[in-house]
Specification:
single chain, 119 residues, mainly alpha, binds ligand ISJ
């Protein structure tokens, strides 16, 4: 019978140390991703308010196509799976469009980010 390693077993200390070092980097990267996404959503919330104010549609498929082409090329040169990069961007854009629809209909959650200041 095989036993699964739950992470609490008798692991070589050198392996445990290497794992801990790698996980520290993963935690730093995850924090950076969260901060970058938060900044991106701050911008897209402002775009949403601008669009609602000027009666522009929430989604812009032509812009999205250009972004996807660009991101796929960037992913390829970074040795990241372009299909994954595309899926990831589409996932984010879908959420942004949902926010833009809520802003346009006046049902947006203020927790998603403030309206831009008056100009
Ligand atoms: C942010 C915008 O709105 C939508 C969201 C996009 C995004 O998250 O990058 C891109 C295009 C639009 O469908 C925009 O038009 O720039």
């Amino acid at each position: 019978m095989t036993t699964s390693n739950t992470g609490t077993g008798d692991v070589d200390p050198a392996v445990r140390e290497e794992l801990g070092r790698l996980r520290d980097s993963i935690d730093n990267i995850d924090a950076a991703v969260v901060h970058m996404l938060a900044e991106r959503f701050k911008c897209t919330q402002q775009v949403g308010h601008l669009k609602a104010e000027h009666h522009l549609p929430p989604a812009d498929p032509a812009r999205e196509s250009r972004q996807i082409e660009r991101l796929r090329a960037l992913a390829e040169s970074a040795k990241l799976d372009p299909a994954f990069a595309e899926k990831f961007l589409n996932f984010i854009i879908a959420e942004v469009i949902r926010h833009h629809e809520s802003i346009a209909s006046g049902t947006d959650d203020p927790a998603n980010g403030p309206a831009p200041t008056a100009h």
